[in-house]
Design goal:
rbstp2171, 3-stranded antiparallel sheet
């Protein structure tokens, strides 16, 4: 049986994990949502013509993915500049982990493709 609209929309399909950040300690992160990914891509994509990425592009993704133990965001997106004041290693460790958890790396995308190849398909996929 397939999901209803309500089941689909209410299901928590995010991934979370605790990351050990050198010089800082443990930070809980979660995968970002589709809407967050689109906002981040729009922010960074404006510079896809080869010009340098905008200031704070890594910090923005970190703001979108850091959560407390109950899953609430630690930062507003508007507070990304505060994250940018942290040690570069701190930002990089969290950025890399959130990208991986959100299937934004090539390796993560390949892993999803492998899993989807082994999943049985039901129906034609058309409506």
């Amino acid at each position: 049986m397939t999901l209803t609209r309500e089941q689909f929309l209410s299901a928590d399909d995010s991934d979370t994990e605790v990351v050990d950040v050198p010089k800082l300690g443990q930070v809980r992160i979660r995968s970002i949502t589709g809407d967050q990914r689109d906002r981040w891509a729009e922010f960074v994509g404006k510079y896809a013509d080869g010009s340098p990425k905008p200031h704070g592009w890594k910090s923005l993704l970190v703001a979108m993915g850091c959560v407390d133990d109950s899953g609430a965001l630690l930062f507003k997106e508007s507070e990304a500049a505060l994250i940018g004041r942290k040690h570069p290693q701190t930002v990089n460790v969290l950025f890399d982990a959130i990208q991986r958890l959100s299937a934004m790396t090539d390796e993560a995308k390949r892993e999803i493709e492998k899993k989807s190849e082994t999943m049985p398909m039901s129906g034609s996929g058309t409506s």
